[in-house]
Known about the structure:
Blueprint: E1 4-9, E2 12-22, E3 25-28, H1 36-49, E4 55-59, H2 64-74, E5 77-81, E6 93-97, E7 106-110, H3 112-118, E8 122-130, H4 134-145, E9 149-159, E10 169-174
Parallel strand pairs: 4-5, 4-8, 8-9, 9-10
Antiparallel strand pairs: 1-2, 2-3, 6-7
Helix pairs in contact: 1-2
Amino acid sequence: MDKYFELSIGSFTKKLRLCKIEDDLYIAAFIMFGEVELTIECARLLLKAAPDFDVLITAESKGIPLIYEMSKQSGKKYLVARKNKKLYMDNPISVDVKSITTSFVQTLYIDQSDISLIKNKRVLIVDDVISTGESIKTLKQLILKAGGIISGISAVLAEGDAANRGDIYYLSKLPLFNSKGEEL
Length: 184
């Protein structure tokens, strides 16, 4: 039997299906793809709370529609740290990451043209959900390698202990769950 968590953000309420990570650890699946109105509202709310920034960055993930909308609303450029080195990339830099939602170590890449957007600029990190913080840690390393300045870290949701971090701002807390669907 499927279990769900009801999440409210602004005027939106959404039922999120619980997905097994370990025997007694479940997460609520938050997918922004196809949720245009929710994405627009989340971008507006995140920008309202954002520190000053010059450029936005996210990992190649479910956060892409969000960062696109934040770029559109703010008029600032965005870039995506890619999960694979592409043929068009000129002398890219990379950092390895191990996320809770993947079963293997991944590498994130940015190209020289991306580096030129970041160097000496205030960069706002954007994600849909911050959980373990590994993706954020990797993005921070990429920004610093490229000579950028981290202006802030934003997400729609902070999952589990991530909600206790003092270095991020987010719209709502997302609890973790046990096998009975109870919040941990």
